[in-house]
Amino acid sequence: MPNSPSRVAIVTGAGRGIGAAIARKLAGDGFAVGLLDLDEANAKAAADAIVAGGGKALAVALDVSDAGQVASAVQTVADELGPPTVLVNNAGIIRDNLLFKMSEGDWDAVMGVHLRGAFLMSRAVQKHMTEQGWGRIVNLSSTSALGNRGQANYATAKAGLQGFTKTLAIELGQFGVTVNAIAPGFIATEMTAATAERVGMPFEDFKKAAAQQIPVRRVGEPEDIANVAGFLVSDGAGFVSGQVIYVAGGPRA
User: Fold this and answer.
1) What is the sign, positive or negative, of the torsion defined by CA atoms of 29, 33, 39, 44?
2) Catalytic residue annotation
3) pTM for this predicted structure
4) Among 80, 85, 191, 248, which residue carries the largest CB count within 10 Å?
């Protein structure tokens, strides 16, 4: 690491699920972590848990699709923890529906959080990374980027994040910044539990059915994604950039 840049990370959508697990992992690896989430109570609870475990963390509420809130939140983290050199764009929502039933609002909301949010956050944080001469951006894509029934909006957004990742890797590499994406398969979270409820299936049955389609015969846990994120933001991953890593228990699941 040149000139020992600050070890400060920002994770969006960090209040629960994959985001909270990534925040815990980075805190355990010695990063001070800004946990950003639309739900302030969830973000604070997750940050408090990190602090209680001996880590350094700060919760900030924001809507990642709002440029003013993004600028303010990034500045708050920089002021309180130090300049952020790691950004994990994890914030996401689902508004699933078949194309003929999908509203413009459903489309715009998903694009706003996933694509506009990742753009605004990356633009705001890259200044700190390039000034430090070291940085890591990790974008959360999904196996849905390969196409998934009922998810025209989500699949498009997650595929878009892959192009965004590769472009930023090209632009920011010369400043010591790597940019990669993780594409999770089925991960047991509140979001997948809500999907099970929507289709009228008990979550345990839903997970068992999913596991039968996955080569390793289990569903993923948030920690499976956090472990890959921990590697991608490490010094050891300095020659890995512009990549999309499918973490799905198989080629795609």
Assistant:
1) positive
2) 154
3) 0.97
4) 85
